[in-house]
Design brief:
seven-stranded mixed beta sheet; single chain
Length: about 280
């Protein structure tokens, strides 16, 4: 099985059980060995980093995820807290760290699974400029300079060109949530859901909500929220939610040609939930 981890909202100098979760994630690699780790954003709190030499890289990332099993590629997206700092520094850190991968604000990665014939396409996007409300708050200066139509057209073109069996999109903000932001206006859904349906995207992974959720509305796409890498908040469920838990944790994904196994573990090592999604 081809395996990877998904988690986000983590960089808090080891606090709020961040260090405990990191140790559990490393120990879990003895059983579930990830090809890579996906970070769903809000990588460094409270306001991103100032530069590639910011001490927070060491105190919130390098010193925390130091276990041997976690020294695999990390594919990273930007969260709203990352936008509070130097965005380019998080991109440029890819040139310093052998495991940190963020070549640009949005990018795609194709992976060949263990059978050497099945492919999976991973589309990593920047959801910050797709949040319409950010044009009216402190993020305005950083989102107003971006071409959102260009990014949406790029997502469309990448998914159109993909011949992969599995198609995944990764961003920071949820399209659906039963958590703290359940009542927010559906800006991201308005921009992206039509593309997910058009291209039959298998799953969307995100963070932003500091909890763990699995939501399956009508349509082809399964929605997973994995944003409890450190601080957590109370969560809840939508009518079509299948799982929601407010505790520090992460998700492991095991993939082959015909099925995807998603397992949700907390920082103590408890299996909170698992589901098998057939192709």
């Amino acid at each position: 099985m081809f395996q990877f981890y998904v988690f986000g909202d983590w960089g808090r100098n080891g606090e709020f059980h961040q260090k405990d979760l990191a140790e559990l994630m490393n120990k879990a690699t003895e059983v579930v060995e990830p090809e890579f780790i996906i970070s769903t954003g809000d990588n460094i709190y409270p306001e991103g980093v100032a530069s590639t030499q910011d001490p927070l890289w060491k105190s919130s990332y390098e010193d925390i995820y130091s276990g041997h099993g976690l020294h695999c590629p990390w594919y990273v997206v930007l969260g709203n807290h990352d936008y509070g700092g130097n965005i380019q520094a998080e991109i440029d850190y890819s040139k310093i760290s052998r495991r940190w991968h963020m070549p640009s604000r949005y990018y795609a990665v194709d992976q060949l699974l263990d059978d050497d014939k099945t492919r999976a396409t991973f589309v990593f996007i920047d959801t910050n400029p797709l949040n319409d409300e950010y044009y009216e708050d402190d993020h305005r200066s950083k989102v107003i300079t971006q071409d959102t139509t260009r990014q949406l057209n790029w997502i469309d073109s990448v998914l159109t060109a993909s011949v992969a069996t599995w198609k995944f999109v990764i961003g920071h903000h949820p399209l659906y949530t039963g958590g703290k932001r359940a009542g927010d206006r559906p800006f991201l859904r308005n921009h992206l859901e039509r593309l997910f349906k058009k291209h039959k995207v298998d799953a969307y992974f995100c963070g932003h909500e500091h909890d763990l959720q699995y939501i399956k509305p009508e349509g082809p796409t399964h929605y997973f929220v994995s944003g409890s890498g450190s601080e957590v908040r109370p969560t809840g469920k939508l009518p079509f939610s299948r799982f929601a838990e407010s505790i520090q944790g992460f998700m492991t994904i095991s993939l082959n040609e015909k099925e995807m196994l998603v397992q949700v573990l907390d920082y103590r090592g408890n299996l909170l939930f698992k589901t098998e999604i057939k192709k």
